[in-house]
Design a protein that fits this description.
The complex is a heterodimer. By secondary structure, chain A is mainly α. Chain A has helices spanning 4-17, 20-42, 45-61, 72-92, 121-132, 136-146, 152-159, 163-180, and one strand at 105-109. Chain A has 8 helices and 1 strand. Chain A is globular, with a radius of gyration of 19 Å. In chain A, 32% of the residues are buried. Chain B is an alpha+beta fold. Chain B has 4 domains: 4-50, no CATH class; 61-132, no CATH class; 140-278, Jelly Rolls; 288-359, Phage tail protein beta-alpha-beta fold (3-Layer(bab) Sandwich), CATH 3.55.50. Chain B has helices at residues 4-17, 22-34, 37-50, 61-77, 96-101, 103-124, 127-130, 261-264, 296-307, 316-320, 332-343, and strands spanning 52-56, 136-139, 146-149, 155-158, 163-166, 175-186, 195-198, 202-206, 210-215, 221-228, 231-235, 243-245, 249-254, 265-269, 272-273, 278-279, 289-295, 310-313, 322-327, 346-350, 353-357. In chain B, the strands form 4 sheets. In chain B, strands 2, 3, 4, 5, 6, 7, 8, 9, 10, 11, 12, 13 and 14 form a 13-stranded mixed beta sheet that branches. In chain B, strands 18-21-20 form a 3-stranded mixed beta sheet. In chain B, strands 15-16 form a two-stranded antiparallel ribbon. In chain B, strand 20 and strand 21 form a beta hairpin. The longest helix of chain B is centred in the first third of the chain and has 22 residues, at 103-124. Chain B is elongated. Classes of the chains: A mainly alpha, B alpha+beta. Chain A binds chain B through residues 1, 18, 20-21, 24, 27-28, 31-33, 35-36, 49, 52-53, 56-57, 60-61, 102-111, 118-119, 124, 127, 131, 143, 145-147, 151-152, 167, 170-171, 174-175, 177-179, 181-182, 184-185, and chain B through 5-6, 9-10, 12-13, 17, 40-41, 44-45, 47-49, 51-59, 64, 67-68, 70-72, 74-75, 78, 80-82, 85, 88, 90. Strand 1 of chain A pairs antiparallel with strand 1 of chain B, so a sheet runs across the interface. Chain B: Residues 138-231 form the FecR protein domain. Chain B: The chain crosses the membrane at residues 101-120. Chain B: InterPro entries: FecR (IPR006860), FecR_C (IPR032508), Ferrdict_sens_TM (IPR012373).
């Protein structure tokens, strides 16, 4: 899950105090999820890295003019989304987003001891498998909701789709996950 | 799709997002009662949401560090970093400069840290061993040079636009550093732990000696000059061959692997200049840029780093004009004037960019 409080603190330190150390930390804190997000939009990892660097150049260059929002993460993601769309328009003359594959998602039982685990390792693997074969757009939406903790409304705004679409895609994901372990009752 | 299944998943989604109303709660309970088949799906999704963690495969640590480093370099190149700000790098870097000031207090602190580390390690077993090792890094900007002492006591002078990194396991089995750029090493003798310098083109292995290594990415050649002792050099392109160098010998390797074999690799004696036995290759350590019979085209590259200038040399004649001399306290302007006097060319200097040209 995202450390939202951490993002907010670092963002404020950058904007108010030009804190380079906070900037470095934010760069590393957001790198994994945000590059995954950009890559889902633009396709190639190298391009995503470049755009990520562009994004952070912007953040630093405009640090005095950035809005002191309560949800800096959404603001930063929106900036990233716009950079990705600009890139797509320029490079491929695309007007709409196509969704590309994202990295494999790993599922782990958080139960501290084996005795407390209510579900077998085998089933965890099946669930993980089901998640990773979801269609690209569905998997991205699932990741943003479950791993990154975005609200449906926020995902819809970032991806330029309706809240209804987000919810339909989420339902599909949940249905596939549930179906992957259904065999249990048959055995 | 508006069957009971679709209503069930809509409600389930609301449940896990925490937006289920009181009325919907009852509806969901009724559905689960009416359709026992849904209860398994309900439990699986509940588990996934509350008991499980979903994480993306992380990007490799080296890739992350490299990205941050390149990014900070870019900020600096674009003039966005405040004046006097060192390029901060992940790991212990950025702290390297401070380390020198605190050297006196460091001994005691290190003892304490080591004791704490030992205690912790005893308790937690192998956890510490598995931990990522962050590289230590020192970088210099164009026009600046620095001196540092490595954990083994060896001294390194780092010339302009250079980067030296070493892992936290430096000193464990061997003493290994990575160099991009130019550095003069005064290596403390330690037979049991060879000192190894990795560069893009070659690896230099030493036991205890003074030597200069120049291996800038993008330069036409890489060089190693030995002042005293013995070193063993392995050129990456020719892994089965080793070159042993003695004092005052220089090995020079062309960066371009497609160049004529005879010109690829040369070993020569370095010229000792003047009565103080100054070697052109290592004079920079004493803040002197010395060159003997060096084509202006190559010298210009060294001058760029030395003075933090961009220098263009126009025309074949000037490119190959062999220069001998030294700069010590000269300003860029004075150095360019000297070159123009010697070669009979003209020069222009404006905003850190110079052009040398024939009329």
């Amino acid at each position: 899950m995202y450390n939202l409080q951490g993002v907010k603190e670092l963002y404020d330190r950058i904007c108010l105090k030009s804190d380079l150390d906070a900037y470095r930390q934010l760069f590393q804190l957001m790198e994994n999820p945000l590059i995954a997000f950009i890559r889902a939009l633009v396709g190639a990892e190298e391009v995503a890295e470049e755009l990520y660097s562009d994004l952070f150049v912007k953040i630093w260059a405009r640090r005095h003019a950035l809005p002191l929002t309560a949800h800096p993460r959404n603001y930063i993601y929106t900036m990233a989304r716009n950079l990705a769309l600009d890139h797509l328009k320029k490079e491929r003359h695309l007007q709409s987003i196509e969704f590309n594959e994202i990295n494999t998602l790993l599922v782990q039982d958080q139960a501290p001891t084996p005795e407390e685990q209510v579900i077998s390792k085998e089933m965890v693997r099946k669930i993980e498998g089901a998640i990773n074969v979801l269609p690209a757009r569905c998997r991205l939406i699932f990741k943003m909701v479950k791993e990154d903790g975005f609200k449906h409304k926020e995902v819809a705004a970032l991806l330029g789709i309706s809240v209804n679409t987000v919810e339909v895609q989420m339902s599909i994901a949940l249905k596939k996950v549930a179906a992957s372990v259904k065999f249990k009752t048959l055995v | 799709m508006n069957g009971p299944e679709s209503i069930f998943y809509k409600l389930l989604l609301k449940k896990i997002s925490g937006t289920l109303t009181e009325e919907e709660k009852w509806l969901l309970a009724d559905l689960l009662k009416a359709y026992p088949a849904f209860s398994e799906a309900y439990e699986t999704v509940q588990w996934l949401w509350n008991e499980a963690e979903v994480t993306s495969l992380e990007r490799p640590r080296e890739q992350s560090n490299k990205l941050l480093e390149q990014h900070l370099q870019r900020l600096q190149d674009e003039g966005l970093l405040p004046e006097g700000e060192e390029v901060p790098v992940p790991g212990t870097a950025g702290r390297v400069k401070k380390r020198r000031y605190y050297l006196l207090g460091a001994g005691m602190l290190l003892t304490i840290c080591l004791a704490a580390w030992w205690l912790l390690q005893r308790q937690t077993g192998e956890i510490f061993i598995q931990e990522e090792r962050y590289p230590n890094m020192v970088m210099t900007r164009p026009g600046s040079r620095t001196k540092l002492i490595l954990p083994d006591g060896s001294t390194v002078w780092l010339n302009a636009s250079s980067k030296l990194t070493y892992g936290d396991d430096f000193l464990e089995k061997e003493r290994r550093v990575q160099l991009d750029g130019e550095a003069f090493f005064d290596v403390v003798k330690n037979e049991g732990k060879p000192f190894i310098i990795n560069t893009a083109i070659m690896d230099v292995k030493v036991l205890g000696t003074s030597l200069n290594v120049r291996a800038y990415a993008g330069d036409k050649k890489a060089e190693a000059v030995l002042v005293k002792g013995k070193i063993d050099i392995q050129v990456k392109r020719r892994p089965q061959e080793h070159y042993l160098l003695s004092a005052y010998e220089k090995l020079s390797v062309a960066a371009d692997p497609d160049i004529h074999p005879k010109k690829q690799l040369t070993i020569s004696n370095v010229e000792v200049v003047g009565k103080d036995s100054v070697i052109a290759e290592t004079a920079w350590v004493d803040n002197e840029l010395v060159f003997t019979g060096e084509p202006l085209g190559e010298l210009a590259g060294r001058m760029e780093r030395w003075f933090d200038l961009r220098i263009k040399v126009r025309g074949e004649r000037l490119q190959h004009f062999k220069m001998t001399g030294a700069f010590k306290d000269e300003s860029p302007e004075e150095a360019l004037k000297a070159i123009s006097l010697i070669t009979g060319c003209r020069y222009q200097l404006k905003d850190h960019a110079a052009v040398l040209y024939d009329e």
